[in-house]
Amino acid sequence: MVTIHPFILSGGYGTRLWPLSRQAYPKQFLAVIEDGKSLFQQTCERLSAAEFAAPTVLCSAEHRFIVGEQMQDLGVSPQAIVLEPCARNTAPAAAIAALLSAQRSDDAVLMLAPSDHLIADAEAFRATVLSGYPAASQGMLVTFGVMPTGPHTGYGYIEAEGRQGKGATLAVKRFVEKPDAITAARYVASGDFYWNAGIFLVSAKAVIEAFHTHQPDVLKQAELALRHAEPDPDFNFICLDERSYAASPNISVDYAIMEKAQNVKCVPLSVQWSDLGAWPAVWEAMDKDEHGNASRGDVVFHNSTSSYAYSDGACVSVVGLTDVMVVATKDAILVTSKDDAQSVKNIVEDLNAKGRVEPAFHKRVYRPWGWFEGIDSEDRFQVKRIMVKPGEQLSMQSHYHRAEHWIAVHGTLEVTIDGETQLLQENQSVYIPLGTKHRLTNPGRIQAHLIEVQSGTYLGEDDIVRYEDVYGRRPGE
Is 84 exposed, middle or buried (0-12, 13-18, 19+ CB in 10 A)? Predict the structure, then answer.
C-alpha cells in the first residue's frame, strides 16, 4: 500500500511580493491569485488523498497560529506543526522531516513540498507524484522537474538524461543555477532541462544516509534540535531547540545533498506550475484582458498594456504604461517595471535597515484571537479597530505607559478589570486605567468588534505585561 508522508515547508517570507507579502503574514498565507483559499491551503488540499498521510508543517514560530487556523478552516488535522526558532534554509528542514518520518516508520517515504507554489491541476500533480513512488521507496532521491514552457530566467534548472515523458524516471546529470536569457533558451531547446520546482519524494532512510555522507553537521544539529525540542500538546506544536537549530549550516537541500548524491532521479512534471517568486509571475498566472493587463481590486487601465495592478482599497489608475507592476496596500505602494521586479527584495532590505515597520506588518495585524488594525495615531494617542473571534480571549495583561478606552461596536464583549467582570454591549464603553490588570473575551457566537483609544507616553506593542495567556505567547506576539 502506498503511503506518502507530506512535509510542508512554510518558513519563507516572500519578500519579492512586498508590499502584499510581509514577515508577519507572508505570501503562502495569502490568496494571491484570487479570493478564496491561500497558497498554503491549496498545498494542504493538493496533498490530501488516500495515498497521503496527515501532513506535517514546518513554519516560523511567529506563524504557528496562522498555520493552525488555516488548516482548521480546511478541516485538515496535521501530524504536527514544527516550529523553527530562527530562519534556516531547506537542508535543516529536510533533515528534521526525515528524522521525524523515520520515527513513525522504518520505511517511511516523505514528500518535501513548498507551501507557496501555484499548481493548476492537483489531480495530475498527484498522479505524477505517485509515478515517482516506486523509485523513492527503493532509495532513490526523486525530484520533480517541471517541463518548461519557455526560457524562464527566474528558475533553476535540472539537466536529466533521457527523453521527456509522462511517468518517466530519469537520471539527473546536474542542477544549474538561474541562467541568463540566452542560456535558458539553449536549455529549453535541448529538451534535456527542466525547471527545478524544489519538490522531492524520498525515503527517510535515504535522506538520513545522504546527510550522513555529504552534510553530517546538518544531520547532527537536526538530531539535537529534535532531542531537546519542547512539545506543546495543547496546540500540537513541536518547538525545535533554538541553540541546536541555529548552529546548523544555513544551506539548501540542493547544495547539501541533491547535487552530491549519485542516486538522484527526476520525474517530469507536466502541469501549469509557478513559484510566484515575483510580481511578473503573478501577472503570468492570472487571466488578462484584451490588452494583456491583469488586476485585483478597484483598478482602471487606460492606454496601458501587459501590466498588473492590485488595490487593497483605493482606486488605482494605470495610464499610458507598458510592463509595469503596481501594488497598493493600505500603508504602502509599489511601482516597478517587470524587468526590475526581482529587485523588490532590495527595497525590503532598505526599509528594514531604516527600522521601518512596513516590511514586517500589514496595517491589519493578525493574532490567534483575531486581529487589530491601526486607524490613526499621533505622539501620545493611537486609535485601533479590534476584532475578537467567537470564544476567544486576549491575555490577562497590564501596561506601564498607556491607558485605554474600549467602545463596543458589534457583538458582545466580556471585560475583566482588576478582577471585576462586566459585559459590554454595542455602543457601550469602558475605561482601563494605566497599570490595571485587564482582559477582553468574546463570549458570543459572532465576531466582536471594538474601537480602542490608547493614550500615554509610549504606545508600542511590547508594552504588555502578560499574567495569563491561553496561547503561551511572549510580549509583542
Answer: buried
Q: Which of 15, 4, 11 is nearest to 90 (CA)?
A: 11
The three state secondary structure string of the chain is CCCEEEEEEECCCCHHHCCCCECCECHHHCCCCCCCCCHHHHHHHHCCCCCECCCEEEEEHHHHHHHHHHHHHHCCCCCEEEEECCCCCHHHHHHHHHHHHHHHCCCCEEEEEECCCEECCHHHHHHHHHHCHHHHHCCCEEEEEECCCCCCCCCCEEEECCCCCCCCCEEEEEEECCCCHHHHHHHHHHCCEEEEEEEEEEEHHHHHHHHHHHCHHHHHHHHHHHHCCEEECCCCEEECCHHHHHCCCCCCHHHHHHCCCCCEEEEEECCCEECCCCHHHHHHHCCCCCCCCEEECCEEEECCECCEEEECCCCEEEECCECEEEEECCCCEEEEECCCHHHHHHHHHHHHHCCCCCCCCCCEEEECCEEEEEEEECCCEEEEEEEECCCCECCEEECCCEEEEEEEEECCEEEEECCEEEEECCCCEEEECCCCCEEEECCCCCCEEEEEEEEECCCCCCCCEEEECCCCCCCCC
**Contact in structure between 169 and 267 (CB atoms under 8 Å):** yes
From the CB of residue 162, how many other CB atoms can be counted at a distance below 10 Å?
12
Whole-number pLDDT of residue 234 = 75
How far, in Å, CA of 7 to CA of 56, rounded? 5
> What is the pTM for the complete model shown?
0.92
- How many other C-beta atoms can be found within 10 angstroms of the C-beta atom of residue 181? 10
Block mean pLDDT (10 aa), the chain, length 477? 93 93 95 90 94 95 93 93 93 96 91 95 94 94 93 91 71 91 93 93 96 96 95 87 95 93 93 94 95 97 98 96 97 96 95 95 93 93 96 95 96 96 96 96 97 95 90 74
Return the C-alpha cell found at 397.
495583561
- pLDDT of amino acid 59: 95
Cβ burial of 468 (10 Å; 0-12, 13-18, 19+) is exposed
